[in-house]
Design goal:
Length: 208
Amino acid sequence: MTKKERVLKAVERLEKLYPDAICSLEYSDAFQLLIATRLSAQCTDARVNMVTPKLFERYPDAESMANAPIESIEELIKTCGLYKTKAKDLVGIGKMIMSDFDGIVPDTIEQLTKLPGVGRKTANLVCGDIYGKPAVVTDTHFIRLCNRLRLVDTTDPLKVENAMRKLLPPEKSNDFCHRSVLFGRDICTARKTFCERCPMADFCPSKK
């Protein structure tokens, strides 16, 4: 079986297992998704979802975030970890969106990664979920799954992204990334693989 055949089978199986492929972060627009994703670094989505309601109540958009006192942001996001760095980035993101992008969250990876603290993972998520563009979000679950399916042989996020862009159908890539997160939490975990209940066990090269 070729890598292309294997990835198409994986897409099909995960579609059946998780028909609703959605981001677990809670947001109402592009700016809020961008901010929530920045907060999620080294923090669980569940924790971020506990923090963002008060944050967005006070600072709901780029303009208000740009003018926010960093100390106020720090206090609101303190439980997310690395809160001082994140608070500085959040205010910086607001300022740059206002000064460089006319108050609108940009829609390309190249522009998004110019924002403070925004890497390709975050940029891909915004491009895919907000702007409907083909995206490959290389979080740890996705990288682990791609390696276990022998689709890649590296854990370097950029190399995984580039390789999987060539293998995944563009219109399926974003949802596959969301589904791989759910799958990585439920079945193909970092500590243990539950191959006995894996829907891909019949073609997975790593099956034990």
